[in-house]
Design a protein that fits this description.
By secondary structure, the protein is mainly α. The protein has a domain at 25-104. The chain contains four helices and no strands. The protein is globular, with a radius of gyration of 19 Å. It binds iron/sulfur cluster (2 copies). InterPro entries: Puta_zinc/iron-chelating_dom (IPR005358). Pfam families: CxxCxxCC (PF03692).
Amino acid sequence: MGGELAEAAALHARLMVEQQVTDLYTGDCRGCGECCSRFLPMSLLDRARLRAYVRRHGVAAHAPWARLDLTCPYLTDGRECSVYEARPEVCRAYRCDLHARGELDGFTGADRAVPVDMREFAESIWEKTEGDRG
Ligand code: SF4
Ligand code: SF4
């Protein structure tokens, strides 16, 4: 294990103790997949562990579900994590109470919502339109 990876492993071990991140937590996850994002903060150890797991088990990413698919590619069509044993720490640590709060049924207008790149959206608001130029 390289120096950087060993350092990440030591940090990981400390986090497991300090933040009580363990696989024993069962939470209230109902497997809706709403929290499984395409963008996840991953440590070096997260990446090394996930890469090794995917190669060892030949896990395939799901084909994009939309033109701009913002879900984690390891979420299956059945809304399960296909890399569960090797999922990143952020996924392990997430404590969800959406079900307990009765908020797993989407939001007003969810049936007509489309994926939006919020960065592009934010920047587009201040872009000059043809009519503005002059
Ligand atoms: S949003 Fe909550 S219930 Fe849905 S997959 Fe994530 S943790 Fe589970
Ligand atoms: S690695 Fe698994 S738990 Fe984490 S976001 Fe992807 S599908 Fe969800």
